Amino acid sequence: MISLLFNSVATPFWKWQRCGKYNLWTPNHPLSFLTISAVARKKMARVLVGVKRVIDYAVKVRVKPEKNGVVTQGVKHSMNPFDEIAVEEAVKMKEKKLASEVIAVSVGPTQSQEVIRTALAMGADRGVHVEVPAAEYDLLQPIHVSKILAKLALDEKADLVILGKQAIDDDANQTAQMTAAVLDWPQGTFCNKVEKTDAGLTIAREIDGGLETIKTKLPAVLSADLRLNTPRYATLPNIMKAKKKPLKKVTPKDLGVDTTPRIEIISVEDPPVRQAGAVVADVDALVAKLKAGGHI
Length: 296
Ligand code: AMP
Fold this sequence. Notes:
The chain has helices at 2-10, 32-43, 81-95, 113-122, 134-137, 142-155, 175-183, 236-242, 283-292, and strands at residues 16-19, 24-27, 45-50, 53-55, 77-79, 99-108, 126-131, 160-164, 187-196, 201-207, 210-216, 220-224, 247-250. By secondary structure, it is of the alpha/beta class.
């Protein structure tokens, strides 16, 4: 503001120019870059997006014979579908100049870098891989991921954290809520629409039987629901470009997060197998069958 006043006073009006990038009228003064960057910085948010590597939604998941988890070896993995929606929302914000930078974070084994690269190919600027060895990752729970994301949000000076509403592998639907709690930031969960306002965000949330509209200030944590947007496909040129984008590697220990499990998994079972149906000749046969089975 001081810079703006100084420039206004010190610059003859004919030297004012339109600054295309931020669509502002700014004085053509040697110090005018201060004005632009100050205004831009105030308006723009740095967004942290969580991207989890999960078994691909189209794969038929098999329980391990030991019944302590599911088979992951040799199985196709991809980015959690709700996280694609979260990345899309963050990238859209950047395209609308509402966000200055999009950082994609994945917690998991080395292969988690694949989903970070996908996020980078969709338009994220840089990635952070929080490396957790595969054996430990099986025991990692949403509380640990929340503490990791919260610490990164503070370290990276993020104004907004966008996560998926749930990971399709553990179906926990806990990480966004717990990240907001750890940070003591407001949360907007199950987002259907997000609009930036001067005061913060206006969010339409998916609730039973309709939409609820709320307002929140920044910083905040959001979770993306299915209808928030349609995620873009990563194009081949962008996949190539993504290989050159920065990707930092850290461990939970570097972030001071203890990942000792809090919950013990007792057993993992297949869902009950549905019995095969039978074709009956006519209504009388159907009624007879239902009576015989004690259903009517
Ligand atoms: P959940 O609470 O496990 O259902 O996960 C909700 C959301 O938290 C996911 O859609 C991700 O955006 C984020 N998340 C959970 N686990 C991870 C992880 N290991 N790495 C990055 N983000 C994660």
